[in-house]
Structure formats: structure tokens, C-alpha cells
Amino acid sequence: MAVDTTKNAVPFEMAQIPGPEMAKAYNTAVIGAIVKKAKRPLLVVGAELFEDPVMFDKAIEIGKTGVPIAATAHSIKGFVERGYTDNVTMIGLHPLTNYLRFKDWQGLDGKGQYDVVIFMGIFYKFASAMFSALKNFNRDIKRVSIDRYYHVNADMTFGNLAFDPEKYHEAIDEVIAKLAA
Amino acid sequence: MAVDTTKNAVPFEMAQIPGPEMAKAYNTAVIGAIVKKAKRPLLVVGAELFEDPVMFDKAIEIGKTGVPIAATAHSIKGFVERGYTDNVTMIGLHPLTNYLRFKDWQGLDGKGQYDVVIFMGIFYKFASAMFSALKNFNRDIKRVSIDRYYHVNADMTFGNLAFDPEKYHEAIDEVIAKLAA
Amino acid sequence: MDKMEGSFSVEDMQNVQINIGAVVKEVEEWDQPMGPFPYPSIATLRDWDFKLINRYRVFYSPICDRCTLCTYGPCDLTGDKRGACGIDQAAQQGRIVLLAVLMGCTAHCAHGRHLYHWTLEKFGDLPFKMGDEILVDAPLTRTITGTKPKTLKEFGPVLGYVEEQVAQLLACTHTGQEGNYRDFESKALHAGMLDSLGKEVSDMIQIIAYDMPRGDEDAPLVECGMGTLDKNKAILITYGHNLAGSAEAMFYAEDNKLWDKVDIGGVCCTAIDNTRIGEGLGYPEEIQTKYRMVGTKAKIAGAMGWWRKMVEANVMDCVMVDEQCVYTNALEECQEKKVPLIATNEKIMLGLPDRTNDPVDEIVDDLVNFRMPGVAIIDPIKAGEVGVRTAIAVKPKRADERKKAFITEEEFKKYAESCTYCHSCQFVCPPHIKIGDVVQEAAKGNLEPLSSTYEICVGCRRCEQACPQDIPILSLYAYANQEYIKNQKFKMRAGRGPVKDTEIRRVGAPLVLGTIPGVIAIIGCANYPNGTKECYDIAREFVDRGFIVTTTGCMAMDMSLYTDEDGKTIWEQFPGGFDGRNICNIGSCVSNAHIHGAAIKVATIFAGRNERANYDDIADYILSKVGACGVAWGAMSQKAASIATGFNRLGVPAVVQPHSVMYRRAFLGRTDKKEDWEIIDARDGSRVYCEPAPEHMLYVAESVEECMLMMAKLCFRPSDNSQGRMIKLTHYCDISMKYFGCMPPDWPIYVRHASDLPLKWKEDMMKELESKYGWEIDWKRKAILSGPIRKSDVSFDPTNIERKIRVKK
Amino acid sequence: MDKMEGSFSVEDMQNVQINIGAVVKEVEEWDQPMGPFPYPSIATLRDWDFKLINRYRVFYSPICDRCTLCTYGPCDLTGDKRGACGIDQAAQQGRIVLLAVLMGCTAHCAHGRHLYHWTLEKFGDLPFKMGDEILVDAPLTRTITGTKPKTLKEFGPVLGYVEEQVAQLLACTHTGQEGNYRDFESKALHAGMLDSLGKEVSDMIQIIAYDMPRGDEDAPLVECGMGTLDKNKAILITYGHNLAGSAEAMFYAEDNKLWDKVDIGGVCCTAIDNTRIGEGLGYPEEIQTKYRMVGTKAKIAGAMGWWRKMVEANVMDCVMVDEQCVYTNALEECQEKKVPLIATNEKIMLGLPDRTNDPVDEIVDDLVNFRMPGVAIIDPIKAGEVGVRTAIAVKPKRADERKKAFITEEEFKKYAESCTYCHSCQFVCPPHIKIGDVVQEAAKGNLEPLSSTYEICVGCRRCEQACPQDIPILSLYAYANQEYIKNQKFKMRAGRGPVKDTEIRRVGAPLVLGTIPGVIAIIGCANYPNGTKECYDIAREFVDRGFIVTTTGCMAMDMSLYTDEDGKTIWEQFPGGFDGRNICNIGSCVSNAHIHGAAIKVATIFAGRNERANYDDIADYILSKVGACGVAWGAMSQKAASIATGFNRLGVPAVVQPHSVMYRRAFLGRTDKKEDWEIIDARDGSRVYCEPAPEHMLYVAESVEECMLMMAKLCFRPSDNSQGRMIKLTHYCDISMKYFGCMPPDWPIYVRHASDLPLKWKEDMMKELESKYGWEIDWKRKAILSGPIRKSDVSFDPTNIERKIRVKK
Ligand code: SF4
Ligand code: SF4
Ligand code: SF4
Ligand code: SF4
Ligand code: SF4
Ligand code: SF4
Ligand code: SF4
Ligand code: SF4
User: Fold this and answer.
1) Is the Cβ atom of D96 under 6 angstroms away from ligand 5?
2) pLDDT at D30
3) CATH domain C221-403 topology
4) How far apart are CA D679 and CA D675, in angstroms?
5) C-alpha span between C495 and D147 (Å, rounded)
6) In CATH, what is the architecture of B24-180?
7) What ipTM does the predicted assembly reach?
8) Is A20 on the interface with D (CB under 8 A)?
9) Ligand nearest to the CA of D463
10) Which of B115, C531, C793, D628 could staple C456 via S-S, CB 3.0–4.6 A?
11) Considering the domain C496-786, what is its CATH architecture?
């Protein structure tokens, strides 16, 4: 049975309540489908993957389904160590989000702006703020979180899974399965 | 069948999102039961009743079940006109809430502080702020709204029924029935 | 504040150097000795503040439970939680209140500072003379700083003091500074006092520089309303608070004889100040010839709340904005209607190119040809010229725009019919207009709801933003109200300026004794809970009852839009003096300082108190003896918060409208706590439990009816003599009977003696006192034997300040 | 700012009156002509600001989508919605940024104003002399105001200017004022500049008044850490930023020979400033005998982030708080531990009774007998005496408290075992410590997690508030770290003060050419994303690499808590000069101004530019030629926002920690927009597309690794010569290889010429440039033929300001 990723849909930092527009928590099938359907998806991964290194392998699996990866902070190291850098680009989350908010940016590969960004493994408050930047200043991009937190400023997110690593891994695997299908 | 008063549980003024603690919408049976169970309930009615005068009659019905009434703004006039002033006290909402927040206040009748306050027919933003005052500064009092709005700073509220006066009247009647039972 | 010490060189005396150890303000022909608190700092008047807030409990209603002010946040402060920095909800609310009051305070003092620099630059230093009828000429300056400026320049140190204190106070809002709500409130009260001072300086400067009326109860009646703008001329709108640029536009029109080509209409306080410009007759002779003023030639387009209605009505060809209360998307709104906009003040530059140093011709050419939607010109003279010339030159180019001023009938129908009755609009409308219903009716051809709610709408455009059908609701309003707009022509009295000493002499005793039942100060903005008419209703109610009614700013403009049976506005109905059954338009927002001034002058002129550097004593006098009450029924901005807080520190209570819960804080008394109402008798230091008079300091009323009742009540003072108390009680009970259908339940607490009782209910009241409240009545003598909180005592001298005790008993 | 005109009378010359038309500051022995922008007003430097923000795009990440600032609110501004006042989300964010920067700015300038009044009162006016090695003595004052104070008093008008501008700027945040985000940011940059100026004035005043080191690279090493406080003595903690009261406590201890009875330990910047107090040797002779200073006798208890850990460790007998960065529940926390608290500054009064005018004996008696938890004493001298005497007298009474400093083993077990592993704590912990797990381990007897996360915990107490079991988590921490607390004894270098002219002469050329790869300024507070150690790591990384490393405030204290293999702190490892491979502790937060000062002095002393009233020119020089980068890795407060913004206006980029998204705004460059990087060659006015150097102005890094990489990158400047660029590129790539495992993808854009390439990768890099980037390489000459953004040009004179063009081509 699929993991229920819609539970615990309260901000991971409790006081993070921005206003009337707040994310909905979805299950893995829906999120997987949205990413799969995307024309120009971008997976953005951060340095929290180092705290749970198996996540690098999962990120790589996602990468292998054809989703390009932006490796923020020093997370590129995890990919280098695993010998997978094909469609992985090292870039800071802050400048990346700055580029994302401009409609005329041409993407990391020069081929055009993205339509869906997927965040994973990023310091909670930073990710939340970057989602907020996009939510307010470039509403053309769909904001998806597949992190272990409920992300209030995303469009689509999981509920909090931070205290159940296994379930979280399972959920990611389900998303990967959906993408690979 | 009972009116579903738990729908449309979003703040009537959309941007009224105070933080992590927000009201839950309940059905009329639960709300009726809470008020009935109260040792020292107080019904607080405001000047919006003049916009829907039948509500005065309903307030009086509630009063007749033994719940004392604080008539804020000039709403006392509606009771005077209907010849019902038994347990109705004229007082401003602002000083009333100020008294309510002090644990040592002895109530309008000098018999002690209230344990449940029920708001009805009060200008939305004002009611919301007064609920907020109690929510933050006297958490001993249960805050109940039976107004036609979802009241984010209450403990218990209806969802928004503002655009369906009939349903709203029905809901109030259900509460009255529960109280009178 | 700098003590202005140091070494200086004097212009034109290049080689003379004067080394001065300490330069102090000259002590001059002022018989008053320096009081205890010149230039009070944050903690100086804290004792007074604590007296106030011990009686008037600080009441908070948080609008947001969180704090997001530092990187530890967001913190949830709900209930008894504390932020990471240790702050609790009460202190956090106090902090936000302090911030808001400082925002308001600086809006005023920064305005004053701009006028200070500008008028000195334009006119040079002018003598500060308010005329023979105003000898107590800058009461707040005197009371707070202990100084008595003799020229405009001498207001410089006063502004410097305000600015220094503002910086100190703003610092207190930094994370990890003040931590207690009582001290935040004391600081907010300090900021409120500074606000009043900043306003006084601002208005005094412009009165002198622009030769405005110095307390003229017969100030001229001026044209007011959208309908007064002459469509045959180019219409230049000057919008904001600071007349510098607007005045120059008028001078330019005057010098170049362009009044037949251009109509200048003001919006917001600039509107009022435009009409206060004098003829220059008040100038010293040597400059009277140099600067020609224009007199009352501008029109009042309307108050701040009418701005977007004016936009929709397309009544302007060019707009100059200056500072304060300018809708921040004015540029976008004007651009849409092809109305060039000129930003004339550093505070509002709207991202526009700064053309201050470009030639006028080039700028006008760019604007007239719509090469840019607007420009910033920080030089008032240049801005004024550009404004007038652009308006005139752009008018023909706007002919098409003018024609399509309103949407067509077809458009109107199309829009109205596209409404899906989804209610989205109704979730966001501040005054809760049922817009969905209104639009549905419009679709059926019934325009009445659009007419009857036109004045209730505050023009916030939230409905338009929420509407999924993109219905331009304000355009529907404009369409349905074309006739009204065309005929919106009324008369308003131009701002008269300060209250004269002679007027104070006349009303001092009746005020303190209560026989004039009170001063009602109607101030503030355009965010009405239920339409502009209520400000007229309030004014009318109290002036009719013989109160002294004063008003300023947007309230003065909005109440001018209503007439009595005879078609007369309130200004035509009543005279403009500071007296019972009079209504004065004091002036613009900064003129509010003169209401404080009048209260201070009751203490000084009537009661002979020294005001010099003696703030708490004066405030104590006012709190105990001057029945005055402010009301801000459409209060919008942070300035309203600072104004009210400034009134409060001076002992004047205020009532505000229900949206004002956004201010988060009130000062409310507890009548169930006898000990809160202990007052000192200055005669012998004895302590007397008094009736709660006034009961509250800052009060939110839910309806206009409650507002009026509360204002009547908040005019009670311990000093009322029996006749005065009787009059006040009569109005209080009468308003209650009129709007509430019954007596107010607390009337007995204001009764000290049978002669306090209103004649018309005297008998019944005595019976009720006996039967319901158990008072002992001597029916033969019609006397009350026991019952009242205190006994009537004509020579009771109430105070809250220990040092005022004359003989310790 | 007042021009200080008017009529004055001179003390001791009662009947002389000098009427002066216009008094202007004397123009004295200063060879520089007045520059274009003395005392710039809001709009004066707007062109410069717009240049910055055109290149460094304003990036907002709203923390709250709503606005609640006026009675129209709350307004939802999400996406393209506007508030009722017309404001859009971007402008609203700019408004909040401006507010935050003003809060920070006033914290500093209000501090300076207090010191100004106090030092003038205590010491009288003192000559402003920084010694022979610092002739460019107040670089920000000179650059911004165009004046050159000769005495302390002459800083008065500078403060007056800051305050006036602050009031103007705060007014702009009022509803209906500024409406465009770009102008809000220009205003915020103005406020940031004012902040830097206020800091300079503050620190200059205290340097002179308290005879602090004037640029001493050998400033003494002082004791730092909780373990240095001598438990055999009474321990008086002075906490905050303003040493006035703390210094008086020290003087009192000195004068009364009480140092064997009392230890005075500072927390926060007061700690640093305590240790900067000199011996009085820098005084003019006539006052040297009058005021005895104490020298370095106080101890550094710790940085702001350690406060609650100190509370839990019970290392104090009495606390004096002054201003800024004081946890607002200090009183409650002290009261719980029976530690009397004295509030010594008007800004923080905590609701305490104001005992300023009471006799010392009475106050001490009340405190020592716990009759009240604390008092406010606004007189520094009295406060200092009360502090020392209370600490000594209360110590024996606190014997019981001292004994139960830590919870007992049983209590510890009981608490730990009561944890239900509910995770509530983990939803609120800012650094995301898995406290539930930590406590669970503790219950099992494993204290290691409590030890290893002790420094990561920022002491916010959110977990304690969230815990349904009421587990006192910080007490568990204290219990588990008793040994560490006892042994927390390190050495820190006392603040040295400004950079000397001689130092600038030495490093000027290498800095501009790049051969010293940069100045790294490590500033700020205690809200670390991942523990205090990271600030040590950053410092160590860059000082090791030969950068000039400077630090101030809490960062200086926190990095002192770590040692190398030899047990040496960073201060013992490296010398304290302003030079490569040196690390200087400049001083407290206000000393940050000297970092701006050093950058300015590179322009003036090394490059011979006139700084006088020439801000934009100097900032342009710094932006183009001085490789400097600030980092605020624990940035907490609004002051950090104002400091960073002040750096930015002067052309210095800054990197901040991830919690800093709370500041909402960044300035980020777009390297994909060639046109953004067009720079003028001052030689002939030609336009050159440059590499993005520096690429960003304000940047949030996600991890300390990214922070270090970015700092190395942000030290690039267009003026680097080949050797300099080669060195910088080497560090940039090297840090990337070290922490990222690969080269940074953008290294090629910094290559202009083959000699720019790091020697150790030169060959490989050239190959990659050819193969991957398609650059043409002449392999024989090892030369790059085409590819770079621009060609290498040793005499390129980059500028962004038109008026700097020498010959128009
Ligand atoms: S200022 Fe205090 S309450 Fe506000 S976010 Fe910062 S720590 Fe939290
Ligand atoms: S513009 Fe008028 S009708 Fe629309 S929401 Fe605002 S107040 Fe209501
Ligand atoms: S939001 Fe628009 S469509 Fe919906 S009810 Fe209102 S006017 Fe009609
Ligand atoms: S009354 Fe209010 S809206 Fe009108 S000008 Fe004054 S502050 Fe602005
Ligand atoms: S200031 Fe503007 S955005 Fe904020 S609450 Fe008021 S109207 Fe709304
Ligand atoms: S006190 Fe320490 S452990 Fe507790 S929430 Fe704050 S940072 Fe985390
Ligand atoms: S909140 Fe308390 S009980 Fe729950 S996991 Fe944390 S420490 Fe344990
Ligand atoms: S570094 Fe930060 S916390 Fe420390 S004293 Fe300075 S501003 Fe305060």
C-alpha cells in the first residue's frame, strides 16, 4: 500500500504561516504524475542529503529518469563521489531561485525556463523562503516539495515525514517508480 | 437533517490568518452541547442583528434558555423594542472584552467570571480582534462563535454561512433546540 | 538635541572666529520660570505614563500571533509563549504599537522638517508672530521643550529634539531591547507626544510662511467636491499633505495669469492647505512685496477616500503627488488613464526618473507626449511649473480619454451580466458591501444599490482583485453615479488655524465647570465602517447639542458632502468659532496640534498654570478638568495611531471606529476597581475615590451610535460643577434614549448630588436610585443622603500628581 | 540637519547678543575641497543606488504574504495582489526591509547619541585625536558629511544629520508614502549608509572617552569564557552594548579596591568594550589625572548566544543590562535564579521601578534582600556602584542558589525519562536539533548527544515551551556540560579599533591588484545554522589562505572558543594586524564602521581619491577595486540587516547564513545578462563588458562550505592584475575542490588571459577551455587567443560613474 504523504500537513517550523495561500499535501502518485508530465522539470537538491546519504542514490535515480538536477550548497560532492554528474549542475540555491523568478531565463542548459521545480534535502527555512519567492514573483512555475517536511509555500508537498525516515524513503521510491514507469 | 456548519472554514476576511492556532468549525450539536454544559455562559450580540432583525428573536430564545446576554453597540434597542430585557445588559464590546480578560472580574451580575462566551451579530473584524484578545490573554474562557462567519480566533465556530441566510437561521435554530432540550 | 555648541565662523566675517564654550538659548522676555521637564527624554515622563496606564489598562488584541522580525523567527507568541528573544505577546504588541506610532510621528515631523528647510530657503527666516489674539503661540513647543521660538528658524532645535527622540525610540523596537509592555506603552506615549509637537511645528511653519489664517473663525467658504472642477479647463490635481509643490503651482498660475486655463484641485490634506494660503497680508512689510500669495483660489477635489473614485470619474489631466496618504499605485492608475504624474517629494518617488535638474521644457514635452508616465521633480518651484504647464498642454491630447470617462452602457451591462454570483468579492470587502448582490441587481437594470453603497465603498479595489470575472467594480460604481459626480459641489470652510486666546478666555470656565459639555475633536481619514455620512452625523449631533466641535483633515472634507433640508452644509449651518454650537475646521492633519494647544491654553490662560516645560502638570489638568474627546471615525493610518496616542498622553480620550482594532491596543478603565479611580485633592493631599471620569482613554466603538454615546460619556470630568454635570448627564442619557431606547446602565455612578440629575428625568431617576440602587433619598428636600461614590464638593481640586498638593494634611 | 543658525547668547556674557545671519561650520586646515554631496539627503545618492540595483537585482522572499499595518488590513499581497493602499508585494517587502534597516540603524546611532551626551557630561569635550598613525581619522564622517570633527562635540551635527534622515526614512514606511520597491531599496541603502555613520560616531566617541586602543595590532589577550569567572568572588555580569554603566562599575571596583571581591564579566558587545578601556594614557594631560581608567580588568563572559547557557550554569550574582541584544526575559530568568538585575538605560527598562533618584544604600538593600527582582537606574555612576555593591552583598545570600547551580542526577534522570518522544520540540528548533532523540539517549544514560549539540543549540527555549512534559531542556544541557562550562577558558584579543593609515599604505596596492586576495570581514551574532564552530572554521580557512581577516562582536568571542592542536586560539595562532595572514578583532558591533573606514582609506590613502563628501565615487572605487567581502554567519538582528546594507551601498558584498532569509531581501547578479556587467573605462569613457566581479551583493549561503566558496568568489574585482586574479582563482578553485569535490562551473568567466590561470591547474584548464568552451588557444605560446569576456588590460580603470571619465572619446 502506498505511503500516506498527506498527513501532518502543518508547517515543519510551526510558526511558518504566511497567509491565505498555503500548500496542499498530496500523495506520491499525484506528485509523481505532475513531475512526469512536466515539460521542463528541475530537481533541486541541497546539503541535507549528506545527513541521509542514501538520498543521493535516490536523487540519482530521479536524475536517470531524465530530470535534470541542480545541486545546491556543496551537495554536488555527493554526486561526484558517486560518479554521477551527467545532468547535475552545481549552483547556489539563492542565485538559482533568482534565475527561476525571471521569465526570460533560459535554464541551466540554455534551453528555456522550467515549468516544475522539485525541492529535496534543503534547509527548511531556506527552501520555504525560496518557494515563497517563486510563489509571489513567478507563478508560472509549479513548486513541488518532495522533502521530508510539509512545505507551506509550495504548491504541492508531502506532509511531515521527518520523524519516520523509512516511510519517507518509501515515499520517494514510490515517486521514482512513478517517474520511471 | 442538520445543517453542515463545518464547511467553508476559511476566514471571512480572507487575509485574517493570525498564526498556527486557528479555530475549528463544528456542527450545531457540538456547539449547542458546549454552551449547554457551560457553568457561566455569556451570549454577546452586536449591532449586525439589525440587518437581520429576526435574529433578535432568536437571541431572545437563547436568553430564555437561561444564557445571559450582553448587548453590545446599540443592539439593546432591539431587545427593548421586543420588550425582552430580563437578562440583557447593555455594554460596549470593547470594555466587555477588557473585563473578560481579567481573571478577577465578577461578571455583569457580580457572580463571577464567565467560562464560555458566544459571539453573534458582531462586526467581523471587531469580533475577530476581541476573540484574539481572549485567545492570547485569557485562555480560561472558551470562545464560541455562532455568527454567520468562520471566526479564525474563536475556539469553536461555524464555517461561513453569510451567503445562505436560511441555512444560517436553521443552524441557529438547531443550537437553540439543543439548548432548550 | 544638540545644544549647538562648538566653534563657528560667521558669513561675511571671514576672519572672525568666535570660540564659544557653551551657547545656550537666550532667556528672554518670558515671565515663566523653566519648568521641571524641558526637552523630556524617554524616561522623564514615565511616572505620568504609568499613572495613566495603571488606570487605563493596556488592552491588546493581536492581529497576528507571530513575530517575523529577526532571523530567529518566525516565532509563535500565542497565549503565554515567548519568542526566541524572550519577548511575550503583550510586549510584542506594545512593540508593534510603538512602531506604528513612530511611523505616524515621523510622517508628521518629517513633513515639518521638509517645510522648515523649504520655507527657510524660499522666504528666509521669518518672525514667528501669531498676532495679537494668539499670544500663547506654540503651546506644545512651550509645554514640552520649555522654549518659545521667535522666528521660524528657532523651530529647528525643536525638530532636532523630536528626531533625536524618534531615533532613541525606534532603537527600542530592535530585537533584544525593551521587553516589557508597560515600558513599550510609555515609549509609545512619548512618541505620541512627539507627534503632537512635530505637528505643531509643521503647521506653525506653514501658517507663517504661507500667511495662513491665524485663528480666523470666519475663514472663507471654499468649493469642495468633484463637481466643482471645471471641465472646460485643464485640471491639475495636487495630492498629499505637503503644499510646497502645490503652492508653487498656484503661484505659477497666478504669476502667469493662467487661472482661466487651469483648475487646481487638492486631494487629502494638501487640498485643505491649498485653501489656507493667504494674501500675504500677514508678512512683515519688507517681504510683503517680495512674495505674492494667492489667497483661496484652489478647490477641494476631495478627501483621501475619494481618490479612486476620482480616478474612475476621470476628473484630472495631470497629478502632482507630494507626501503621505497617497495611494501607492497612483502612478499605475494614472498611467492607465493617460494622466501624467509628477512626484515632488523625496519620500514618494515611485521609481520615477529624477528630472529635478532637467529643463522644464524637456520634462513637459516628455510628459505631454506620454514618453514616460511620470517624473520625479524634487524642486517645488520646478515641479509647480511643470505641473501647470503639463496639465494645460496635455488636456487637448487627453480629449479622447476625457470622452470615454465612463464605461458605456453596453460595457456596463456586459460586465454586470458576467457576474457569476460567486461571493469572492464579499470575502474581501472591508465594509462588507454585498457586492455580488449589488452587481446582480445592476445586471437586472437596478442601479439603486450601486448608488446607495457608493459612499460606503472605501475604494480599496479588493473586490476587483478577487473577482474571477475581472469585473471592474469601481467602474460600475462610477457609471451608476455619473450624475452624483457631476453635482458633487459643496461648500467647506477653509482651515482657520489655532484657537485664539480670546476664545479660550470665553470658554475656559464653562468648559472646566462643564456647562459647555465638551470639546469634540473629529479627526482622521476615510476608512469608514459604514460610509462617510456618519462623520457628518456625529458632527451634527454634537454641534446641535452645544458642544464645541472641531475638525480637521479628511473628516472636514467628507462632512462637507452633506446638507440639511435647506441645502446647507454644516459649515453654512453653524459659525466657525471655538465655542458651543460652533464647528471649526482647524485645518489639515498637522493642525490637529491646535486642539492639544487649545486644551493646554485652557490650563494656562484660564487657569493660570505655567505651561513651560511642565507637561505632566498640564496633562493632569486636562485629564481632570477639560472635558474633551477626540473621535477618529474613519481612522486609517499610523498617523491616526500617533495622533490618538498624543491626545492620550495629554489626558484627552479618543474613540475610534471598529477597523481600528488593527491598531491592536486600547486603554480601557475598569469601573469595578474602586482603587483605580483614586484621585488626589490638591488642596490637602487627601485621596478621594471618584467616578470614572473619563472612563477610558482609547476606545473602539462598534457602531456610530455607540460612538456618540461614548463621546458624550468621555466628556465627564471630576471638575464638573453640578450644572455642568447635569448638562453632560442630560446629553449622555438623551443620546442613549435616542439611539439605544433606554438609559445607559451606568448613569448613577456619575451622580454626586441631586442637582447633578437631568431635570427632565429627575423624579424618575431619584426613584430608581432609591428602589434599584438602594440610595437614601430625602424626598422632602429632594436630596440624596447616601449612595454616590463621592459627595459633591465645589472646591475639590482633582489631581494625580503628588507635587501639586498644596498643603499636606 | 540644522544649519545651526539663529540668535544666541553666550554664557558669562549675559548682555552680549550676537545676531548672525548664517552660521556655517568653519572651513579649516583641510586641503580637500568640498565634494559634490555633503550631508546627502534621501534622493542625493539615488543614482548610485539605482546603478547597484540594476546590476544586483533586488530579490525578495516574503516571510509573510500579508500586511497588517493599517486599518484597511490585513491585506493579502500574495502574487500580483495589491493592498487596499495600492502597494504590491515587492514594495511591501521593500518597506519591511527599510523598517528593519532603520531599526538596526537607530540601534547604533541611538547608542552613539547616548554616549555623546554621557561622555560630554562626564569628561567634557575632548579633542578628537586618533594619533599619528591615523590621520584619516573618521573616514565615513568625512566621506558622507564632508566634515572633519576636531572634538567629540563636533560629532553632534553628524548625529543630528543621521537622526533627521532616519525620521525622513521612517516616514516613508507610513501607509501611502513610497510605493515602488526600487525606491524603498534606495532608501534602505541610504539607511544602511547612515547606520555605518552612526557606528563610526559611536565608536570614535568611546575610543576617545575611554581611551581605547587606536588601531593596536598588539591589543592584549583577554580571558574569555564562562570558566574564567572566579566563583570565589562575587560575579557581576554586564550585558549589552553600551559600556557606560559597566565602565562605572569597573571604576568603582578600581577606586574602592574591590577587584579581589568582584569579577566583572561582560556579555555581548559590552564584553568587548569592557576590555577596550585603556589606562587613560591617550588623554590630554590636563584630564589624565582627573579620570583614572582601569585597563583590561574585565572578563569576557561570552557572546549573546551564551546568555541562556550562562543562566543555566548559574555563573552570576548580579546583572546589569544596558542596551541592544538583551534577551527580553532576562529579568524573569534572573529572578528565577535570584539574581538581582539593574537596568541602566532608558531603552530597556523592563517595567522596573525607576530608582535613579534614590540613595544607593536603599537600592542595594532592596535588591540584596530580594524585595524586588530588579531596578532601573538611569545614572551610569549610580548604577555601577549599585551593581558592584549588590553583587558583593548578595553573594552570601545566594549561597544556596549557587549550590544548586545544576539539577541533580535524579532530577536529570526523572526529566529525561519523562520524555514521550512526541517530537513537539523538533517542530520548533531553529537549528533542527533532534531533541527528542537527544533526550531519549539521555534517558538511556548516554550524555554524548547533549554534549555534541550543546554548541549547536542557540538557546531559544522554543523546545521547552513546546514540550508537553515541561522538560527543562536547557537544564539538561547544562547538567551534561558541567565540565565544559567549568573549563570554558580561552584567550581573545581585545578590540584594536580602526585600521591605521600605515597599514593601508602597506596593503593598498596588493589589495587593489589582488595579490592579497581579499579582506574578509566576519561580523554578527549568535544565530548559527549549525553551531558556533563554523565561525572559527571560516576565519581559519581564510587567514590560513593569506586573506586579511577582520572580525567584531559576537563572532570574535565565539571563534575564541576553539583551539588548534597546540591548544591555541586563533588569536594566539595569528598576529592582529590588518594584513594578509593576520586576524584582527576590530572591536564591538559599532567598530564595524572601521571596516568601511579601511576600504575608504584604500581609496584615499592608496589611490589618492578625495573622500570629502564624495560617497558615490568612493563606493564606486571600492566596488571596482577593493576585494572585500563581509560575512555574517550567525546574523540575528536588524542591526545585521543595516550593517550588510551599509556595506552594500559602499560596494562591499556580504554573505549571510540561511536563517537570514528572514531579512527577506537579497541583491543577486545575473551572469546571463551581459548588459548588466557593462563597466565604464574611466580613461576614455568606453564601455567594457566585464566578468561579474563581484557577482552578488547580498547572498544567502546554504552551508558553511558554500559560504566559504562564495566569499572567495566575491573577492574578485575588475581591477585584479593577472597575478592577483591568478591567486584569487586559485583559492576559489581550491576551496571548491576541497569542499565540493570539483571545480566551480563558472571559473572560466574569470579568465581574461592565460596568466590569470592557477599554476597548478593551468594545463588542464587550458585544455578544458579549448575542448569544452571552444576558446582558441595558441599552445605554443600558451596563450589564449579568443574566448574571454574581455581582454586583459593592465591599465583598465573601471568605474560606474560618468563623471569619473577623464577624456571622453
Ligand atoms: S524578534 Fe523575537 S519574537 Fe520576533 S522573530 Fe525575533 S526572536 Fe522571534
Ligand atoms: S472597492 Fe469598495 S466595494 Fe470593492 S471591496 Fe473595496 S470597499 Fe468593497
Ligand atoms: S467576485 Fe465577481 S463574479 Fe463573484 S460575485 Fe463578486 S462581482 Fe460577481
Ligand atoms: S485624515 Fe487621514 S487620510 Fe486624510 S490626510 Fe489625514 S492622515 Fe491622510
Ligand atoms: S498598509 Fe496597505 S497593504 Fe498594509 S494593511 Fe494597510 S492597506 Fe493593506
Ligand atoms: S533551545 Fe536549543 S534545543 Fe531548544 S529549540 Fe532552541 S536551539 Fe533547539
Ligand atoms: S517535546 Fe518533550 S516529550 Fe516531546 S519529544 Fe521533545 S523532549 Fe520529549
Ligand atoms: S554581534 Fe549580534 S548579538 Fe552580538 S552584540 Fe552584535 S548585534 Fe548583538
Assistant:
1) no
2) 81
3) Rossmann fold (3.40.50)
4) 9
5) 43
6) 3-Layer(aba) Sandwich (3.40)
7) 0.97
8) yes
9) 6
10) C531
11) 3-Layer(aba) Sandwich (3.40)
